[in-house]
Each structure stands twice: as C-alpha cells, then as structure tokens.
Amino acid sequence: MRKVILLLLACLPVMAFAQGFQVNLHGQKQIGMGHTGTGLLQDGASVLFNPGALAMLPENYIQAGISPLIFKSGFNPTGTTASYYTKSKLATPFTFYGVWGPKQSKFKFGLGVYTPFGGLTDWGNDWQGKYALESLDLKAIYIQPTISYKLTNYLSIGGGFVYNHGIVDLKRAIPLADASGADGQAQLNGSGHGLGWNAGAFIKASDKFTIGLNYRSQVNTTIKNGDAIFKVAKSMEANFPQPNTFTASLPLPSTSSVGFGYTPNNKWTLALDVNYVHWSVYKVLSFDYGTNTSLLQDTHSPRNYKNGAAFRAGAQYKAKDNLFLRFGGGYGITPVRDGYVTPEAPDANRYYLTGGLGYSITKHLDLDLSFEYERVLARTQTNIESNLSGTFKTNVYIPGISLAYHW
C-alpha cells in the first residue's frame, strides 16, 4: 500500500506544462491568421509576438481581448467499450496590451498582461482514471513591461522583463476507502511566481516582405507553502497530517520563433511562423511536503519531455476600407513522449483551423473577432507510473473578441 500511495502522489502536477496547456491565445488578429504575428506589424500584441516590432508601429495602442476556451476530452480504457468525458468547463484566457511613444521618437514603450499557460479540466470522481486526476484548474499570468528602439528605417529591436503569477487547484482520488466505501482525496492549491524575459528583432527586407525573430525565455515558477489537503479515513489521518503544505518548482519552457510577412498588394497580407519550444527542460516533477510521514514522503516523478515545434500560416483580406477577413491554420508536434501521457495533459500531435473578422468602428476604434477549432489526434498510451491505459481524444473550441483603440 505504501508504494501505491507514493506513486499516486508522485503523479500530482502543480502545473501541467504540455502543449495542451500552452494557450497561444495572444491577440484576435493573430489568432484569425493562424497564430502568426512574429513577422508582421499588426497591433499592440507585438509586445508578446515580437517586442522588436513595437518601434515600427505607426500608432499607439490600448487593447484588450478574451478567448473563452472550451476543452473537451474523451477516454476509452484499453480492452473495454466504456467511454469517459470531461465536464463542460469554460476557461477564459485574456490579453491586455498598451503601446506608447512620441510621434517622432525612435523609442516605443509597451506593457503586456496575458495568459500563455493555463487549463481547466474536470473528469469527475467516478471515472476509471480518478486516481490519476479528478480536476485541474491552473493559470499562468504574465506581466511584461517592454521597450523597443528603431535602429534604422529597416531594423528595430526590443525586449521586455516578464513576471509570472501562477495559480493552481488540483484534485484526485486516493484508494483508501472509508467505512462507507468512499475514496480518499488529495487536493493541492497555491500560487507562486517566476521571472523571465522576451526579446525580438524586426526587419523590413522590402516594401512587401518583413521578417521577425523572437525569443521568449524559460520562466522557472516556484510555489511555496501551497496547501496540501488530504481527506482520508479516520484510521489513516495520522499518516496524512493536517494542515500541511508543499513546495514545488517547475520550468515554463523557452520559445524561439521566426516569422515572415508578405504583402503582395493593398488587399492581401500573408504570414508564416515557425515556433520551437524547448520542452526538454521539463525532466522531473518534484514535491517537498512540509510534514512527512512513512506514507507521505517527498516525491520525484520523471516527465522527460522532448522539444516540440509548431508550424503556422495565415492570410488577411481587406474586403473594404473598414472590413478585414482572416483565416489560417497550423500543425503542432507534441513534446510528451510515449509512456508519459496523463489525463491533465492528454497531449498528441494536433492541427487547428482559424478564422477572423476585423471591423473599424471608428477611425480610432477596432473590433476584432476570432474563432479556432483544434483537434488533438487520438493517442493510445499506458502511463508508466499510474498504469492508466487507454485512448485519449480531444477537441478544443475557442471563440474570441477584442477591442483596440489606436491614435
């Protein structure tokens, strides 16, 4: 029994950093064009996509947006016809950007507040994998002050400091039944922070062709003195002392991006982005509990992720002076190796399709809408720690809206 309990606790994630939780919802114009933006001059979202482009923006911006995310996963246990599904939940990734600089200045200053990692998953307490996960609610909120400088009419650079505020609430069942036959439950909740940076360069190769380079650094996020809450039968309470705390530190991976923009005429804008995410830093998940017992020891759970990549393309068509149509898509390669797929991150290679609409309400006020459908390909796996075996299938639906005031 001791080995079972330690194994279950070892699998508990504070933040499930897989591609499925790398939100990538950073601006409605960019979403509509397949998440491209590294090599384009579009709006204040360049604070995230490429700080080097800010100094080239012809106007100042204040903008905010939200992209409600509906995440639906299904699981079919190996050798059965049973099916389990996550409950309908609505996550709300958001963005805020501000960009300002005097008209004739070579400098522009920016501020971004956005959610690059997060997830909201609820499998309930009566499915086969309840000992691996019942529910997970996590958010990583980045705050990024930024500065950009135009070196020449063809080249600008920029960078920003990143502060991350992370929040997590996770529940899972423990196979220790009370007198009524109900399972025990473990819950971890807490918050923490991490530091990083974002830098980029923007090149106007010609009047029609632009290039962008961007690097977003790794952000090590540490949660200290989070609440570790265990509900077990009275006969086991001494082995799971309350109150209790935990400390954990996890890396949010760095991302290297290159982007290209092409404007063949005054109607069309085309874009291509390639992103390489350095997930290999996520090798182990460790927990240090404030109070240990013979059954509750500090745990070290291997993850052994590999680096992943995403390929994105999109287009914008100017239908009228105040109306823009957008569409795009992409393909992402999972960082999760065979044997390490878990219910909080049922990840696999994926493709997605996007569309969007931009409308200028006034000379200075824009309304942008976006929609994304994302399909995570079916993946049959047996987890090497929990032995949960079966096939995961996931679909994601993401509408979005933003307003931007520019002058």
UniProtKB/TrEMBL annotation:
It is a multi-pass membrane protein. Transmembrane segments: none annotated. Keywords: Cell outer membrane, Membrane, Signal, Transmembrane, Transmembrane beta strand. SUPFAM superfamilies: Porins. Residues 1-18 form the signal peptide. Pfam families: Toluene_X. InterPro entries: OMPP1/FadL/TodX (IPR005017). It is found in: Cell outer membrane. Belongs to the OmpP1/FadL family. This is OmpP1/FadL family transporter. It comes from Mucilaginibacter lutimaris.
